[in-house]
Structures
1.
Amino acid sequence: MSALAALDMHVSYGNIRALRGVSLAVAEGTICAVVGANGAGKTTALNAICGLRTLSAGRVVLAGQDVTSVPPHDLVPLGLVQVPEGRRVFARLTVRENLSMGAFRRRSPRAELAAELDRVLELFPRLRERMAQLAGTLSGGEQQMLAMGRALMSRPRTLLMDEPSMGLAPQVVDQVFETILAINKLGVTVLLVEQNALMALEIAQMAYVLQSGEVVLSGPGPELLHSDAVREAYLG
Ligand SMILES: Nc1ncnc2c1ncn2[C@@H]1O[C@H](COP(=O)(O)OP(=O)(O)O)[C@@H](O)[C@H]1O
Ligand SMILES: [Mg+2]
């Protein structure tokens, strides 16, 4: 059984057909990548999966349970969380407050919250040093780490990530990818959307290439990396 499966998803914005029958299967415990050019439909696919966009056709199945059109807040307790494109941290709140917002049981005892924080901060030593800092004053890379940390506070089994490396310096991009691998090692299934096809394919057990709202190629990431079609389209 897949941790997550999207079956024949169709989404339109007016007369723009953003997804034209996209199917994805994400195996438990793996990293799955969706790559494709700007406008290919990657964000739309993630948003359709987590209930932010209405499907005109198709289904979403989470660990065997049909969750088509279930809104994001109801997916969190089921173990599915998205780290959105552009990070979207609460700029005027501190790092600590941002992380607390991610806890799924907000009214849980302080001790429980503290333990959860501690677990997440193991992955992000830079955040630990900046708990009282306002999120808006963090660097882009730190904000991305915070967005990931916040998502992890609810103990997701499956994490959706939309372009986590966007706009970051190469060295910071490396750190973000190392963190994704570390999160996956903890047992979290990852569906990763990236324009940075080279790095995403390297770490993805399974990958899909999206073009104009359709899957044009799929297979193990490293295999796609060496396919002529992908090299021509994305790697020059
Ligand atoms: N809110 C929207 N309203 C109208 N069209 C949209 C909207 N969001 C995305 N689109 C269109 O849908 C297509 C897919 O966009 P998107 O999913 O954002 O692609 P990607 O994330 O791969 O860059 C594009 O043609 C884009 O212009
Ligand atoms: Mg996008």
Note: The chain has one domain: 2-235.
2.
Amino acid sequence: MSATSSAPGDLEQVRAFLNTWRLPHETRSPADDLPSLITRATDWRTALPDIPRPGPGDLDELLALRTDLRAVLGHPAPAELRAWFARHPVTVTVGDEVQPLRYRPVDSGAAAVIMAMVAAALAGQQWARLKSCPDCRNVFFDHSRNRSRTWCSMYAETPDGRACGSISKVRAYRKRRRGN
Ligand SMILES: [Zn+2]
């Protein structure tokens, strides 16, 4: 099973959006990439190709959406998102054999497109696999069979590995050695 943190399909863009809020290991002080990212068209297209780049007037809504989505990571059926779906309704159309149902936003703004991606993830039971690392808060997709992954990466050598799980094990070991 892959140790990657990437989510399948469009959900990877939702993951990238959520990770615009970061808690860098070096500083342990929150960093927010979203305000500057919306001003950089090329970087936005690279990071979030299918999400329309919002204007400055949409920033507050996107910050609120990011906070609310982060709050329900790992929840298979988050009722807290009802207000967001009421605000940005999603329509369902018939797709193909691979993806029988397609979820489309009613309006074309960034928040609406993100909610349509979230709807598809909920319907495909993939949303609950999107988790936030308890240490660095990095959002990762849990590919493990029994959804047992807790840390963003147990192995520092993986491409996006921060080794939070390993760091925490070392901390626990040292604590035990100190006897407190
Ligand atoms: Zn982590």
Note: Residues 11-144 form one domain.
